[in-house]
Amino acid sequence: MFDRIFFERQFSDQTQQFCREQNVAAPVVDLLLDDGTVLRLRAITQTRESWLGLSVHGEGGKARLVLCPYFTIKRIIFLAPSSAKDGVFSPQPNP
Protein backbone atom coordinates (compact mmCIF):
# COMPACT_ATOMS: atom_id res chain seq x y z
CA MET A 1 0.00 0.00 0.00
CA PHE A 2 1.18 3.52 -0.75
CA ASP A 3 1.62 5.86 2.20
CA ARG A 4 3.12 9.18 3.21
CA ILE A 5 6.62 7.72 3.56
CA PHE A 6 6.50 6.38 -0.01
CA PHE A 7 5.51 9.75 -1.45
CA GLU A 8 7.98 11.72 0.68
CA ARG A 9 10.98 9.40 0.29
CA GLN A 10 10.60 7.13 -2.73
CA PHE A 11 8.26 8.68 -5.28
CA SER A 12 10.81 11.27 -6.43
CA ASP A 13 13.49 8.60 -6.87
CA GLN A 14 11.11 6.43 -8.90
CA THR A 15 10.21 9.41 -11.08
CA GLN A 16 13.85 10.32 -11.71
CA GLN A 17 14.79 6.72 -12.46
CA PHE A 18 11.98 6.45 -15.02
CA CYS A 19 13.09 9.71 -16.68
CA ARG A 20 16.68 8.46 -16.94
CA GLU A 21 15.62 5.09 -18.34
CA GLN A 22 13.24 6.62 -20.89
CA ASN A 23 15.43 9.66 -21.65
CA VAL A 24 12.62 12.14 -20.99
CA ALA A 25 12.66 15.43 -19.10
CA ALA A 26 9.35 14.77 -17.33
CA PRO A 27 7.00 11.79 -17.26
CA VAL A 28 3.27 11.48 -17.55
CA VAL A 29 2.08 10.07 -14.19
CA ASP A 30 -1.33 8.48 -13.76
CA LEU A 31 -2.82 7.32 -10.47
CA LEU A 32 -5.40 4.55 -10.65
CA LEU A 33 -7.83 4.77 -7.75
CA ASP A 34 -9.83 1.92 -6.24
CA ASP A 35 -13.07 3.22 -7.80
CA GLY A 36 -11.55 3.07 -11.30
CA THR A 37 -10.83 6.80 -11.56
CA VAL A 38 -7.55 7.71 -13.26
CA LEU A 39 -5.92 10.97 -12.17
CA ARG A 40 -3.23 12.50 -14.41
CA LEU A 41 -0.87 14.31 -12.05
CA ARG A 42 0.43 17.81 -12.59
CA ALA A 43 2.10 17.97 -9.15
CA ILE A 44 1.89 16.76 -5.58
CA THR A 45 1.02 19.82 -3.51
CA GLN A 46 0.78 18.35 0.00
CA THR A 47 1.59 15.19 1.91
CA ARG A 48 -0.29 14.64 5.14
CA GLU A 49 -0.55 11.68 7.49
CA SER A 50 -3.47 10.02 5.71
CA TRP A 51 -3.94 11.92 2.42
CA LEU A 52 -2.23 13.70 -0.48
CA GLY A 53 -3.02 17.05 -2.05
CA LEU A 54 -2.77 16.66 -5.82
CA SER A 55 -2.87 19.09 -8.69
CA VAL A 56 -4.30 17.09 -11.58
CA HIS A 57 -4.99 17.74 -15.25
CA GLY A 58 -8.69 18.39 -15.76
CA GLU A 59 -10.89 18.98 -18.77
CA GLY A 60 -9.61 21.58 -21.20
CA GLY A 61 -6.18 21.58 -19.57
CA LYS A 62 -7.52 23.22 -16.41
CA ALA A 63 -5.87 22.26 -13.13
CA ARG A 64 -7.98 20.67 -10.40
CA LEU A 65 -7.08 20.17 -6.75
CA VAL A 66 -7.83 16.70 -5.41
CA LEU A 67 -7.38 15.57 -1.81
CA CYS A 68 -6.78 11.85 -2.05
CA PRO A 69 -6.54 9.32 0.81
CA TYR A 70 -3.51 7.05 0.34
CA PHE A 71 -5.54 3.86 0.73
CA THR A 72 -7.53 4.68 -2.44
CA ILE A 73 -4.41 4.59 -4.66
CA LYS A 74 -4.14 1.18 -6.30
CA ARG A 75 -1.52 1.77 -8.98
CA ILE A 76 0.94 4.42 -10.17
CA ILE A 77 1.75 4.44 -13.88
CA PHE A 78 4.71 6.27 -15.38
CA LEU A 79 4.59 6.95 -19.13
CA ALA A 80 6.85 8.73 -21.57
CA PRO A 81 4.96 11.65 -23.15
CA SER A 82 4.02 10.90 -26.74
CA SER A 83 3.24 14.50 -27.67
CA ALA A 84 3.36 18.05 -26.31
CA LYS A 85 -0.35 17.71 -25.45
CA ASP A 86 0.31 14.97 -22.90
CA GLY A 87 -0.02 16.27 -19.36
CA VAL A 88 3.33 15.84 -17.68
CA PHE A 89 4.17 15.69 -14.00
CA SER A 90 6.22 18.45 -12.38
CA PRO A 91 8.10 17.69 -9.18
CA GLN A 92 7.51 21.31 -8.12
CA PRO A 93 3.90 22.54 -8.08
CA ASN A 94 3.19 25.57 -10.24
CA PRO A 95 2.20 28.68 -8.24
Task: Describe it.
The chain is an alpha+beta fold and 95 residues long. It is globular, with a radius of gyration of 13 Å. A five-stranded antiparallel β-sheet has the order 4-3-2-1-5. The longest helix has 19 residues, at 4-22. The chain starts with a helix and ends in a 16-residue tail after the last strand. It has one helix at 4-22, and strands spanning 28-33, 38-47, 51-57, 63-69, 73-79.
List the main descriptive attributes of the protein structure presented here.
95 residues; alpha+beta
Rg from C-alpha positions?
13 Å
Main pleated sheet = 5 strands, antiparallel
Globally, the shape reads globular
Low-pLDDT segments: none
How far apart are the first and last residues' alpha carbons, in Å?
Answer: 30 Å
How many strand segments? 5
Query: What percentage of residues falls in helices of 4 or more residues?
Result: 10-25%
SSE series: HEEEEE
Overall pLDDT confidence: 92
In percent, how much strand structure appears in the residues? 35-45%
Helix count, DSSP H or I runs of 4 or more residues: 1
Helix/sheet category:
alpha+beta
Query: Largest sheet, order of strands side by side?
Result: 4-3-2-1-5
